[in-house]
Amino acid sequence: MNDLTNKSWLNWFRLASPSAFYPVAGRLIPFFWILSIAFGLAGLWVSFFVAPVDAVQGQGYRIIFVHVPVSWMSMFLYIVMAGWAGIGLVFNTRLSAMMAQAIAPIGAVMAFLSLWTGAFWGKPMWGAWWVWDARLTSELILFFLYLGFIALQASIDQVRRADKAGAILALVGVVNVPIIYFSVKWWNTLHQGASVSMSKAPSMAQTMLWGMLLMALCFWMYAIAVTLMRVRVIILERETHTDWVKQLEEVRS
Amino acid sequence: MNAFFMIVQRDLLLVMRRKSEVLTALFFFVIVTSLFPLGIGADTALLRKIAPGVIWVSALLATLLGLQRLFGSDYQDGTLEQLALSPRPFVVLVLGKITAHWLVCGLPLLILAPVIGLQFDLDTASLKTLLLTLLLGTPVLSLIGSIGAALTLGLRGGGALMSLLVLPLYIPVLIFGAGAVYAKSVGLDVTGHFSLLGALLVLALAFMPWVSAAALRIAIE
Amino acid sequence: MTAHISHPPFSAQSFQAKNLTCVRGDQTLFASLSFALTSGECLHVRGENGVGKTSLLRLLAGLSQPEQGEVIWNASNIKSDREAFHQALCFLGHRDALKEDLSALENLMMYATLGASNSSRESALQCLWQFGLRGREDLPVHYLSAGQKKRVVIARIAMRGAPLWILDEPFNALDSQGVQGFIGLVEQHLSRGGIAVLTGHQELSITGLRALQL
């Protein structure tokens, strides 16, 4: 779960109401943007200047400093999204469902970036824009799971039904992701076609790991910042009829 | 259990009175499998190699076609509400409907598949394996598919949306099912595939009816 | 068309709504709605179209969840003992809930099994005959007229013999004779100690009737 839950002086239940959460989220957003930019600059510096040139793959391998972190984030965000959706389903809290709805497109973008950077890595390295290896294929399926969640919520007009149906789908998905990953790995080893694999990363120099970790943190802070921004918009959309929204400066102007 | 058998019998009776719906999915299965040789060429060796995948994918798509009917008719005439309000456990009734769906959609595939397999020149051992994988796998397809059907009940564009939701979840069954037939055809051991398929079936039977029942209650709110 | 279906009288029942609030989309249809019914009472929910009558009935039946408040059957929340509540409830929604491809008799037998009551084929036939469907029991329901379909639905309700009836627009498609017959059925149900909640635009003269205007 994101950093919000660690601040012990904030009364957790008070924040469960959209009207209380809205201003708090607003104050936190710049904080996470700053963290994201800071980590990003550090990560990019490490990945471009500190990490050594790979003996086999030359300079082009540096795209893993984006590819691997976004892959991690796409999987992490799916679990977080399913977690929020599950909480919303069990405790019938609207804000949790709004968080899940906010995270979904960001996770989908991360998954897409993973596939895209994977292609950019594959082409110069192995001559093919796409390789049916276990991780890329699982990433593709994860992308479809995100799209399914977004499409389902978009198709249901009644908001509470959309929340709950999406929650069930996300929970079923989160249980299936390990099963799918395992089956795809199995499939990959069975059909020994291409002998190339994205999983066989270049033997990790310590600096390379640092680079990826910093970039991962950068994307994580970015994801939190954008999620908070999106959830504020969703709150406004859903609560337009309430008094506190009508009082807001942004709405009155 | 009385209620379970009543629901299975009722759904089968309803299908018998509207036979055209059943046959459409079956014809679809046959037509789609015939498209592949037409698209790829009649090279026997190649067809033998792609047969497990082609037959399994066509089985997936044919099951998807049948899924749209699973809860749709009961939802439209109001019977689904009555099922939800029955003193009988809703999960049992849902399982009854899924069972009836498998009897109508999955079982005929089992009967047709060897015929298609012969068209693709599969040998006897592979055909037997194909039948067994379909026997284990088609119930899983019905069970997983029921969640997609329940979630998209009554929505515009329900069919296409349901396919988007359900097909990623079908992938493990496809991999183990088609993989087993392919492995058999090249002489590899298939016990691993079958244990995994069996495990999927057990998991699906244990959880999917509850999830579908929950999704249905949400849909009829 | 009065029915002579024999069911034993019910023990004392109570049906309560406490502080029900219903929200549909952006609109609050009603808030803090409460009532209490005991054996022999019938609640007639009135109001214009779209005011929330159907939503209220669905809340009372437990099909949808209220934003706030609870529904209580015999001193326990309907969510806490679902099976007991469903055993006691007979719900009629907007649609007839009849399978069009099955015959009237087959539909009633299906509901007998679903309702966990031990109705035999003979008693189902008796029900259908008492509502003027003799000779039509074996026809697929889609051959029946709208009025006849409604009589099948009423036969289902009568056969079930549940203590709590929640009926949404039960008089639709009935002619005046049918309406009178159905009112007689409701009165018989109330005199046996049952409870009923129904909607309808008609003026009803039933003993033990209370009105709720939404």
TrEMBL record, chain A:
GO cellular component term, pick one: plasma membrane
GO process terms (BP): cytochrome complex assembly
Subcellular location per the Swiss-Prot or TrEMBL entry: Cell inner membrane; Membrane
Segments passing through the bilayer: 28-50, 70-91, 103-122, 134-154, 166-187, 207-228
Pfam families recorded: Cytochrom_C_asm (PF01578)
Keyword flag Hydrolase: no
Entry annotated with the keyword Cell wall biogenesis/degradation: no
Topology versus the membrane: Multi-pass membrane protein
Record-level Gene Ontology MF annotations: heme binding; heme transmembrane transporter activity
Record keywords, A-Z: Cell inner membrane, Cell membrane, Cytochrome c-type biogenesis, Membrane, Transmembrane, Transmembrane helix, Transport
Main subcellular location: membrane
Cytochrome c assembly protein domain location: 26-191
Entry function: Required for the export of heme to the periplasm for the biogenesis of c-type cytochromes.
Similarity comment: Belongs to the CcmC/CycZ/HelC family.
Name this protein carries in UniProt: Heme exporter protein C
Source organism of this protein record: Polynucleobacter paneuropaeus
TrEMBL record, chain C:
Entry-linked Pfam families: ABC_tran
Family matches, as InterPro entries: AAA+_ATPase, ABC_transporter-like_ATP-bd, ABC_transporter-like_CS, ABC_transptr_haem_export_CcmA, P-loop_NTPase
ABC transporter domain boundaries: 15-214
Keyword Nucleotide-binding: yes
Hydrolase as UniProt keyword: no
Entry's Gene Ontology BP terms: cytochrome complex assembly
Any one GO molecular function term: transmembrane transporter activity
Keywords tagged on the record: ATP-binding, Cell inner membrane, Cell membrane, Cytochrome c-type biogenesis, Membrane, Nucleotide-binding, Translocase, Transport
SUPFAM superfamilies reported in the protein's UniProt record: P-loop containing nucleoside triphosphate hydrolases (SSF52540)
Protein name, as recorded: Cytochrome c biogenesis heme-transporting ATPase CcmA
Organism: Polynucleobacter paneuropaeus
Taxonomic placement: Bacteria, Pseudomonadati, Pseudomonadota, Betaproteobacteria, Burkholderiales
